[in-house]
Amino acid sequence: MKEKLNYVHVAFLIYVTQSNVFLFSVPRIVAENFGSNGWIGFLICSAAGLFNIFLYSMVYKLAKGRSVFDIIEQSMPKALLYPVYLILAVFWIALGAFVGKQYVNVLQTVTFPTTPSMFIYIFYAYMLYLLLIKNIYVIGKIGILFFLSTIWMVVILVYFLPDWSFSNLTPFLFQSPSVPFSFDNWLEVYSGFIGYELAVFLFPYAQQDNKLFKGVYLGHLLVTAVYLSVILAAFGFYGLQYLQADQFPLVDMLAYVELSFINRIENLLLPFFLYKSLMTTVMYAWAALLMLKRMTRKFKPKVLEAVITLTSIGFASYPKLMRDTQVLVRQSIYVEIMLAFTFPLLLMMLLYWQKLRNGGRLHESKN
Amino acid sequence: MRAKISVFILIAVLFLASCSDQKIIERLGFTRLSAFDSVENSDDIRVTSNIPKADQKGRFILSSVARTSKEARITFSRENNRRIVSGQLRMVLFGDSLAGKGVWKHMDTFVRDSAISQKLFIAVVEGNAGALISKEYKPYPTTSDYLTRLVETNMDAGLIPKANLFTFTRDYMNDGVDPVAPLIKQDAKSVKMTGVALFQDDRYVGRIEQNKSIIFSFLHRKVTGADLSISLDDGEQIMLGNITSKRKLKVTGRSLDQMKLSVHVELHGSIQEYTGDLDLSEGANQMKLESLMSDSLKKTVTELVDMFQRKKVDPLGMGKLIRNRMGSYEEWKAIDQRKAVSEIEVEVEAVVRVKDYGLLQED
């Protein structure tokens, strides 16, 4: 019997997919975009994420465990769909690659400053390949390991309590952001949550107990909780103006920790974040793999995985500077946010239409 | 087999990581102390670096006039057979004449350079900072160890404020608070802590004398384990030891002209020395001493706060508290913040409590 993902697996999988290099800069991004007490704006973004997940859960209910591919292909010609699949696959590989490259860039501000960044990325891509050739169940289990390897760091936040000052939070709401207020502010903060939408591909792999979305909600709430504690810690520790000036507040916070037997522990801790970032890349690459496999079954096992890995290296080699990578990550995530919101609406319309055509009955096909 | 190859590659990466971006200790010169002084009639600065030898017996002193500290580092590397790195930098000292012009221009690089610890000590030197770090102080093996230990012990004892790169940057960048740094001076044979340097933004504009700097620490942060010697009006001396301090600054009132700052300082300690005649085993006498000591503390605290208001500096973050009481952020932005801080009415409350009076029981 094929193993299925339990909702607990799903929760951790969604957590490691959502949380990535964004964590290093999230306090600054919130401070820049919302100003004082920006964490409230952050929570509003998280609520928007919950709503989006709710849309997916509606799709899940209506789809009754069918994969999205079955739903779409039932009503649309393949000739029309395949180019879309291909574009999506390439886009997701690129998105994952940029997130990975961004991690390498951040790592290089602290360690290996002169090693060619692509040299480091190749090892990153090798790990991507190793995970990609496994099935989603194994990836899910590894997600738990990766989760455990970083979540303990939340404890470190206690270290900042003595320097944490309530008066740094100020009683003002959304005052003196460093960029003018616009829709972009919300988008940029929302970027941190992206990743949950991949749950739509998990339908056929989840246990048939209708708890898949319980896991997705849990994962999203866990990400919100971890981000929020880092944001609150940073706001009270730095104060608004300093926070807005600090490129990677979390890296600097880790650097601030000094124990009597060891200091500069950010050099030790930063590599752990590799796993978070890697899982984001892996999950998007996995979604891309599904797309490609749907189009053709001609390839031998592991060939497509290798092609994805090489494509990923290709995309990652494109941005040469940190600012280039940042722009690419931001822009591709904006596109992804748009996709994340439109996709479930599209699916729901399709399912509704199919229901109408079947005279009120949902199509009952097993995949 | 495949799995074995993968495991091998991953383990090899783990160990071979050290072959990239090598830093070979024997070929590096670790700057431990850096000093910045102003150059007369010029915008350039004199940068002096103290680099201890690997065997801890002696040091290299490099000094150069340059526009920035990193430019000086490049000059140093040209005349030195080692590559000068700043990962072990422990303390940065600014000569008072340079500090008076503003230090942020020279500190930007410390914050930017990820190799430099955020717990880097910052201090202002009365006189020439370069000369201070160039000298060797017998019997201490290295100047860098001597100075860093000196600062550490004084900080722990509450004799000087906690001031490192992080606190300085934070208080410089955020509104409603100004940074502080310890003030030190070179003596014939040693280095002395001479007080607290007060900054207005990044300019050194005033000082707190050594005898009051511990009281400043009580105002500035929570101190544990400090000792405080108080002379009462009639010439009696009391030494309060093992002090734990508490402080609370609070602004009341909603509009600027109604606002009032209350400063509450509370010390709990044991009497370790007393030259007067009161019988300390009697509770009433202890209370009498407590009130005498409280009065003395209140007087010093009031003097300090008055001085801050006169000099328009805000090391205690009074501005932040005023800001947080304002009706809106725009209002805070619109007012003259320094003026608001210097004109607010201040009410000082000082409490000293005697936990115990030592082992001596008088009859």
Largest β-sheet summary of chain A:
none
CATH T-level topology of chain A: Amino acid/polyamine transporter I
Quaternary structure classification:
heterodimer
Largest sheet of chain B: 8 strands, mixed
- Give start-end ranges of low-pLDDT stretches of chain A: none
- Tally the beta strands of chain B: 14
Order of helices and strands of chain B: HEEEEHEEHHEHHHEEEHEEEHHHHE
Name of the CATH superfamily of chain A: Amino acid/polyamine transporter I
Order of helices and strands of chain A: HHHHHHHHHHHHHHH
Q: Which percent band covers the strand fraction of chain A?
A: under 5%
How would you describe this protein?
The complex is a heterodimer of chains A (367) and B (363). Chain A is globular. Chain A has helices spanning 7-18, 22-34, 38-63, 68-75, 78-110, 117-132, 136-151, 183-190, 212-238, 240-245, 249-256, 266-269, 273-295, 303-317, 322-357. The two termini of chain A are 15 Å apart. Chain A has 367 residues and is mostly helical. In chain A, α1 (7-18) packs across α13 (273-295). The longest helix of chain A has 36 residues, at 322-357. Chain A has a single domain, classed as Amino acid/polyamine transporter I (Up-down Bundle), CATH 1.20.1740. Chain B is α/β, with parallel strands linked by helices and 363 residues long. Chain B has two domains: 23-219, no CATH class; 222-363, 2-Layer Sandwich (GMP Synthetase, Chain A, domain 3), CATH 3.30.300. Chain B has twelve helices and 14 strands. Chain B has helices spanning 2-16, 69-79, 96-101, 104-112, 129-134, 143-156, 165-173, 210-220, 283-311, 318-325, 329-334, 337-343; strands at residues 28-30, 33-38, 45-52, 59-66, 83-85, 91-95, 121-126, 180-186, 191-200, 203-209, 224-231, 237-252, 260-274, 345-356. Chain B has an eight-stranded mixed sheet with strand order 4-3-2-6-7-8-9-10. In chain B, strands 11-12-13-14 form a four-stranded mixed sheet. In chain B, α4 (104-112) packs across α7 (165-173) and α8 crosses α9. Chain B starts with a helix and ends in a 7-residue tail after the last strand. The mean pLDDT of chain B is 89. The chains are: A mainly alpha (367), B alpha/beta (363). Chain B: Residues 194-358 form the Spore germination GerAC-like C-terminal domain. Chain B: Residues 21-185 form the Spore germination protein N-terminal domain.
